[in-house]
Q: What sequence folds into this?
């Protein structure tokens, strides 16, 4: 797609680098809120480690709760980043150029956030390194049959690849920043720009490497969340043990991820006046994909119930009955409505094009997807095989605080990112506009 | 970039040396005991059998620390004027046990029994070192899991976890 | 951890060892002379457990114990297999008894009350002087009539010494007080057989048992003994039936084949109706004409139709029971005890006696001449007399020994006021309980584990109680206290009581026993033998009894049983956990949930669902319960096993004082009782109490360990039904079993585990399991399981490794309650193992699901993936307030926060025995390794052993016709097989 005529190379540079200039009041205000929330979260975690995991609401039989919910949720968020930046790149979808940068950044930060939660969740967090394969004097290795170990690998791989991918994309832009920057900043930027000077040779290598990484990242989009879903699918817990989980989780992940991209881009665009670069068209396209993913998610829900009924397995049936009318029915209905009904509104052009409705709907979807994870985890555990040990789960303030802290952590990273690195790709936008003729700037 | 390399190299190698070196630099743990009891004299010069004092080693999981009575058994008469021996008499008269400082401690979650090892004919010195040469008793083996497993591996004995952890 | 104590304490322990050996050389402390059970006396080897025989004194049954001693501390008690009362079994209170020895709230020194009302520590010398001054002055004033001594049931040497001692001080009044007593039975036996004693019931001989409110599997007279007998009775012939008649489905009723609920206060009518029917139908055993006529005369009014309309039990039922019971050869009718102790308590027992008599059970299942100890207790009437004399200030000195009158006597008795008017209350007590608080002088008495003693639960059973540890605090045994008091008065008395300590006295009095029983062997030999065995036991011959000609009972049928229609009837029952309240200060007993209500840490009012609906209350809502004599507020527990017009409350909680665990917890329903006593026997009128119940605006969540109440057809607790004539229905045939095994093999994708040496397995016979939860208590004590307290239990975080699951079924015999002991099933395809990321959970070569605590990081994945939900997580680190932690088992790691734990089949016991076998160079014997739960089980429902050994008991039971595995369809292949319960189909 084309940008408006009056955008020139020079204008792109100045406009986008403007984002990096000294922040305004709003920014500092946001920063303050984020930091304070984060500090509450950190305090909660310290308190939990100090006085025992018992301060969280998780109990017997519901031994997994909000922490694992968050882990799955954030890993999900991570997905659409790669989807947009890698897959759409391979398919040469031109409109991705102006949004993929922030999406990609979002991916990296989401994984970083996600990575925290399994550790927070551990009964003895200080021994988390037992999960890492390293040669120790005890001559013991982790159990490679355990899905949790697969997680460790899947998530780290995903993090490394998407980080490099992000960094590669950034290189030319960092160089651009370097050229504008002065003093100490210049030193730093020149260091991390690895002496990029934009010669043909560099560009040739860069683009081939970039293509290669995109190709590498693409399968990860599918693999990572499949592995995460196996945490559940590989167990024998009724309501978890199901073959549909992998595709179902991936779809859900992209669903939530796209919603998150919207939730982030809309304010970003507003605050930094990037209307010319991030246009309605972008949002509309995203909205269209969301309709699609929403439908897949809806289909998966339906299938789950069908299987439960068709399998004629009393444990399965009990669980699904319980989800709909049991103690957690509210969460269930939040999940169904927000994830499958609400996105359908995008069928109306008005909804797709109005920033407000886009923002609201995207946020609702995020909430819905978070609850999806909670419902899957909690309801199944609360109502397992042995009726005598059925039980309920009530989150405590510690879990809520850490949940909020997680969001704050993510937001903080993103806030810092937009101020130190170009949140919109300069070089790739340039690819989309008329190259300057002699004499023009 | 060249500038960076040298100091970095030095720094790294320094770390490595410290990390591995620390093991050798550390001197073995040999705490001061309430009574300067010398294994060298008892086990070395007089060649007392270990089991004479640590009499439970072949019967129980603990080797056992000799009771004051056991000490007095000999020292009522022998060497009673020696300053260290006098201390024993003090404890005996106060009817108090001697608060020896523990040298070898297996962690609480690990179960170790002297009985099986001693009766299998494993020499005390294999784990406790040449005690008969020590003035003050000192810790010669780490008692870390790796150390246990190594021996169990060599001797083809059970490496089922709950043999030691329960 | 390997030593439950820190390094410092360990040194102390060694010190203790050496110090005591040192002392032994000069002085002769009895503590150093104790003889190890079956092991030649030698100095204790640290790390090697010694076993000493002693007695359990948690209730009057007087079971024998073996105490396991490590480094000088008792760390576990088990039933003494030689003791004829409990024969190796032990109830949960017995298991928890070490928590009274190591209770952090014991009285540690003598104390005297100051004017300000708080207590001040004084020395023993001063304390004794205090007592002597009081006694002496009374003697001088010739007013020893103003002194009264109240003790619990003490028998044997201590009792004799007390008599001597009282003579020495010219004291006349001695009351033996037990809150739960059976004077009604005793009295009835006097009336019917002119033999005022409580007989011995041989339950295992009975072909059919009719229990009229006798809850003999819970607390009635000698529960462990009777549970054992019940188990055997079921094993002899699984079709033998127990029928329970009462308003509430007690634990006994839950294990009965049939529960017949009848209108409150109409038991007598029903029994007499039965007699009437049996006589009418001439089903009775042959009786002399005169006796026949006599009995006929007594029951003439009780024709079927009248009885059935009066009791609300259908005529067919009465006929059926009558026919079957008279056919049973022999049968056994049980009655008496709290559940039926109302206005007509004695009459009911009289009726029961007659029923047994006409069916010829007397002398066969009801045997006289054994003088069950509890028969010696003074009735409530005597207490009231005592209180009266206090009120008339004819009583100035009260000497109390281990009786908690303030708690156990109802407010209406007036004792609570009266005690304040006595100038001198001397309490010789172990705990600062409700009563000790009121005393002017408190003398700390030793626990049974710290003092010498003996106890005769019945004729011919001489239990010997030897100390297993030196007194932890400045306490002394009651006997020693008495002796030292005597010693310090004038010479003349000393001549009569020359012993300086109770040990000598005991030995001396056992010389008498020695003379009677086995004079042929030398005394020392006899004494040592008795110490090893835990006493001497002789089979007493029964005494013949014949019907007295003066048999009589109030044979009106129109008993008005209700004062007004609105009020409902309240039943009180002694809790299996707290008994009469003395269990309340043990955290373990508080933590374990009641077998029926599954509620821990609280008192509650049991209410029928329909009543609850009528009152608009739900589980946990508070109601006010008001009788003529008291009012209290307590939460409601909905229970199907109780009549609409009846509510029930367990005894045991609601102490004002009694240590941190009991204080201000729950309510004490005893205060609803009236001052009235039953005319004939003079016993407490426990029921029926008529109460008004009103809903009040308050609720709490009860600490229930139960989630779902039903099985939803998941076949967790399975049962088979039989009907008279036809055998057991749907019993597996050999062919089925073979088929099962074959299919089981086919189902597997992987090849089976090799199991080179052993394969541990367990079989649990649900037909024997009565749900008493003794196994749970044993498990806690053996495995250092943490106690989490009420708040955490409410959140579902109790740590029990073995739990008794209770399910309610409505098919078969109306209400059908089933119990399943659920513990780690040690599956061969264990879902918990593959999911653990760090190999903390893994399958060991002997078929155990091992859990390595120090490797566990606490992902809790294994718990999610365990279909049996038997894995327990340490949400916090647990604490055992000093000295409770002295009881911890040094062979079991104390788990820290954040690790998963679960049943290990008592791996420490397996390892120990394997080591011993290795040392002795032999193979393990079957039955050598017994997990704590199997060991304590009063009904021997649990069998553990090696499945690789085809001759082992467990292998024999493994493919039983009644066998099944829980959740077999998910093919986890558990190593625990359950044998289906057998119930009678009506």
A:
């Amino acid at each position: 797609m084309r940008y408006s005529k009056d955008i020139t190379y020079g204008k792109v540079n100045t406009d986008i680098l403007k984002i990096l200039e000294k922040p305004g009041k709003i920014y500092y205000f946001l920063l303050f809120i984020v930091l304070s929330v984060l500090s509450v979260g950190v305090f909660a975690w310290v308190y939990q480690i100090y006085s025992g995991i018992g301060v969280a609401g998780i109990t017997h039989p519901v031994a997994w709760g909000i922490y694992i919910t968050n882990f799955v949720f954030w890993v999900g968020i991570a997905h659409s980043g790669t989807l947009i930046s890698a897959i759409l790149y391979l398919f040469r979808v031109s409109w991705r150029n102006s949004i993929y940068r922030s999406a990609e950044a979002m991916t990296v930060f989401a994984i970083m956030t996600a990575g925290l939660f399994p550790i927070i969740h551990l009964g003895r967090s200080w021994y988390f390194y037992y999960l890492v394969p390293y040669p120790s004097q005890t001559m013991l290795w982790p159990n490679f049959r355990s899905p949790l170990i697969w997680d460790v690998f899947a998530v780290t791989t995903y993090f490394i690849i998407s980080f490099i991918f992000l960094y590669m994309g950034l290189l030319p832009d960092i160089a651009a920043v370097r050229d504008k920057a002065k003093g100490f900043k210049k030193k730093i930027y020149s260091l991390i720009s690895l002496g990029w000077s934009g010669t043909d040779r560099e560009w040739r290598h860069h683009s081939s490497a970039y293509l290669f990484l995109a190709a590498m990242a693409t399968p990860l989009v599918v693999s990572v969340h499949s592995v995460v879903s196996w945490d559940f699918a590989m167990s024998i817990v009724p309501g978890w043990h199901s073959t549909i989980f992998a595709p179902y989780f991936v779809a859900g992940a992209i669903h939530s991820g796209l919603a998150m991209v919207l939730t982030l881009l809309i304010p970003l665009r507003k605050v930094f006046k990037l209307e010319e670069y991030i246009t309605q068209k972008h949002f509309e396209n995203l909205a269209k994909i969301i309709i699609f993913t929403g439908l897949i998610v809806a289909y998966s829900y339906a299938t789950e119930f069908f299987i439960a009924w068709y399998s004629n397995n009393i444990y399965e049936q009990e669980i699904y009955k319980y989800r709909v009318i049991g103690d957690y029915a509210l969460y269930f209905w939040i999940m169904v409505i927000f994830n499958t009904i609400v996105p359908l509104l995008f069928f109306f052009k008005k909804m797709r094009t109005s920033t407000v409705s886009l923002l609201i709907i995207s946020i609702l979807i995020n909430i819905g997807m978070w609850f999806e994870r909670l419902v899957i985890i909690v309801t199944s555990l609360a109502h397992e095989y042995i009726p005598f040990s059925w039980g309920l789960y009530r989150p405590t303030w510690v879990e809520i605080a850490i949940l909020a802290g997680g969001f704050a952590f993510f937001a903080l990273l993103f806030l810092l990112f937009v101020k130190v690195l170009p949140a919109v790709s300069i070089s790739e936008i340039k690819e989309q506009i008329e190259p300057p003729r002699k004499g023009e700037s | 970039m060249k500038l960076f390399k040298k100091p970095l190299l030095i720094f790294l190698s320094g770390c490595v040396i410290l990390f591995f070196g620390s093991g050798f630099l550390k001197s073995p743990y040999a705490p001061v005991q309430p009574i300067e009891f010398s294994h060298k004299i008892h086990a070395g010069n007089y060649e007392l059998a270990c089991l004479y004092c640590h009499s439970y080693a072949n019967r129980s999981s603990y080797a056992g620390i000799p009771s004051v009575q056991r000490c007095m058994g000999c020292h009522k008469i022998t060497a009673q004027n020696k300053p260290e021996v006098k201390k024993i008499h003090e404890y005996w008269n106060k009817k108090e046990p001697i608060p020896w400082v523990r040298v070898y401690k297996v962690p609480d979650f690990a179960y170790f029994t002297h009985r099986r090892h001693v009766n299998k004919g494993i020499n005390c010195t294999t784990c406790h070192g040449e005690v008969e040469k020590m003035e003050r008793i000192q810790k010669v083996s780490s008692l870390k899991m790796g150390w246990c497993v190594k021996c169990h591996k060599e001797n083809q004995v059970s490496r089922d976890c709950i043999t030691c952890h329960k | 951890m390997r030593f439950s104590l820190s390094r410092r304490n360990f040194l102390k322990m060694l010190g203790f060892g050496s110090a005591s050996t040192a002392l032994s050389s000069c002085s002769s402390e009895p503590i150093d002379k104790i003889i190890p059970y079956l092991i030649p006396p030698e100095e204790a080897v640290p790390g090697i457990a010694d076993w000493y025989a002693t007695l359990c004194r948690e209730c009057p049954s007087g079971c024998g114990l073996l105490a396991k001693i490590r480094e000088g501390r008792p760390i576990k008690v088990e039933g003494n297999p030689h003791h004829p009362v409990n024969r190796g079994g032990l109830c949960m209170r017995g298991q928890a008894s070490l928590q009274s020895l190591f209770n952090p709230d014991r009285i540690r020194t003598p104390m005297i009350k100051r004017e300000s009302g708080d207590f001040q520590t004084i020395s023993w010398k001063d304390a004794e002087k205090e007592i002597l001054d009081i006694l002496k002055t009374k003697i001088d004033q010739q007013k020893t009539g103003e002194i009264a001594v109240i003790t619990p049931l003490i028998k044997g040497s201590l009792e004799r010494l007390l008599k001597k001692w009282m003579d020495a001080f010219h004291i006349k009044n001695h009351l033996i007080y037990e809150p739960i007593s059976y004077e009604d039975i005793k009295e009835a036996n006097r009336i019917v057989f002119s033999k005022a004693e409580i007989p011995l019931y041989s339950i295992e001989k009975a072909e059919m048992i009719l229990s009229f409110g006798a809850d003999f599997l819970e607390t009635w007279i000698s529960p462990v003994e009777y549970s054992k007998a019940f188990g055997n009775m079921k094993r002899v012939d699984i079709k033998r039936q127990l029928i329970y008649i009462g308003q509430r489905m007690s634990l006994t009723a839950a294990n009965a084949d049939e529960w017949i609920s009848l209108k409150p206060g109409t038991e007598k009518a029903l029994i007499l109706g039965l007699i009437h029917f049996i006589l009418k139908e001439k089903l009775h055993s042959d009786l002399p004409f005169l006796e026949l006529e006599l009995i006929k005369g007594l029951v003439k009014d009780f024709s079927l139709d009248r009885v059935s309309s009066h009791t609300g039990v259908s005529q067919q039922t009465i006929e059926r029971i009558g026919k079957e019971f008279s056919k049973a050869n022999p049968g056994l009718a049980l009655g008496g005890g709290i559940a039926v102790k109302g206005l007509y308590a004695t009459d009911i027992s009289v009726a029961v006696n007659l029923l047994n008599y006409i069916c010829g059970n007397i002398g066969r299942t009801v045997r006289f001449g054994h003088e069950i100890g509890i028969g010696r207790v003074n009735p409530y009437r005597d207490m009231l007399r005592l209180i009266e004399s206090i009120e008339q200030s004819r009583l100035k000195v009260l000497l109390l020994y281990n009786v908690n009158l303030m708690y156990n006597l109802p407010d209406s008795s007036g004792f609570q006021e009266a005690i304040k008017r006595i100038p001198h209350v001397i309490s010789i007590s172990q705990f600062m309980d409700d009563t000790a608080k009121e005393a002017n002088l408190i003398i700390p008495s030793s626990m049974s584990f710290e003092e010498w003693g003996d106890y005769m639960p019945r004729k011919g059973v001489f239990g010997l109680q030897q100390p297993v540890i030196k007194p932890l605090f400045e306490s002394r045994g009651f006997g020693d206290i008495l002796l030292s008091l005597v010693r310090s008065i004038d010479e003349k008395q000393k001549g009569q009581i020359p012993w300086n300590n109770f040990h000598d006295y005991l030995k001396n009095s056992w010389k008498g026993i020695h003379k009677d029983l086995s004079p042929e062997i030398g005394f020392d030999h006899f004494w040592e033998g008795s110490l090893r065995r835990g006493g001497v036991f002789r089979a007493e011959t029964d005494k013949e009894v014949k019907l007295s000609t003066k048999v009589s009972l109030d044979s009106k049928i129109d008993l008005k049983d209700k004062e007004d229609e609105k009020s409902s009837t309240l039943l009180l029952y002694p809790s299996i956990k707290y008994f009469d309240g003395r269990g309340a200060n043990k955290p373990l007993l508080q933590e374990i949930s009641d077998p029926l209500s599954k509620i821990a840490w609280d008192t509650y009012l049991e209410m029928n669902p329909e009543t609850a609906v009528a009152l608009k209350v739900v589980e946990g809502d508070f109601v006010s319960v008001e009788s003529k004599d008291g009012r209290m507020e307590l939460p409601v527990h909905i229970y199907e096993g109780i009549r609409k017009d009846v509510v029930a409350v367990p005894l045991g909680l609601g102490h004002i004082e009694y240590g941190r665990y009991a204080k201000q917890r729950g309510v004490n329903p005893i205060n609803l009782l009236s001052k009235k006593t039953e005319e004939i026997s003079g016993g407490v009128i426990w029921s029926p109490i008529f109460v008004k119940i009103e809903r009040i605006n308050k609720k709490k969540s009860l600490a229930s360990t139960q989630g779902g109440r039903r099985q939803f057809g998941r076949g967790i607790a399975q049962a088979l039904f039989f009907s008279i004539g036809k055998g057991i229905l749907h019993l597996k045939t050999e062919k089925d079993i073979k088929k099962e095994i074959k299919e089981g093999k086919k189902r597997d994708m992987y090849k089976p585990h090799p199991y080179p040496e052993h394969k541990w397995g367990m079989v649990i016979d649900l037909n024997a399991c009565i749900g008493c939860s003794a196994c749970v208590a044993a498990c806690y004590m053996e495995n250092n399981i943490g106690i989490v307290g009420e708040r955490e239990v409410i959140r579902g975080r109790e740590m029990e490794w073995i739990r008794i699951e209770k399910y309610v079924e409505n098919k078969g015999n109306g209400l059908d309650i089933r119990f399943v002991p659920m513990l780690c099933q040690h599956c061969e395809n264990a879902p918990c193992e593959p999911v653990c990321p760090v190999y903390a959970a893994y399958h060991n070569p002997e078929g155990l699901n091992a859990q390595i605590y120090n490797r566990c990081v606490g992902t809790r994945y294994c718990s999610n993936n365990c279909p049996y939900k038997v894995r327990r997580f340490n949400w916090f680190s647990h604490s055992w307030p000093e000295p409770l932690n002295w009881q911890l088992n040094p062979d079991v790691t104390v788990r820290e926060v954040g690790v998963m734990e679960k049943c290990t089949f008592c791996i420490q016991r397996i390892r120990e025995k394997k080591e011993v076998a290795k040392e002795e160079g032999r193979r393990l014997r079957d039955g050598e390794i017994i997990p704590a739960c199997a060991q304590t089980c009063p009904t021997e429902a649990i069998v553990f052993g090696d499945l690789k050994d085809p001759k082992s008991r467990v292998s024999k039971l493994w493919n039983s016709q009644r066998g099944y595995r829980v959740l077999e369809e998910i093919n986890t292949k558990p190593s625990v097989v359950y044998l289906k319960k057998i119930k009678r189909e009506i």
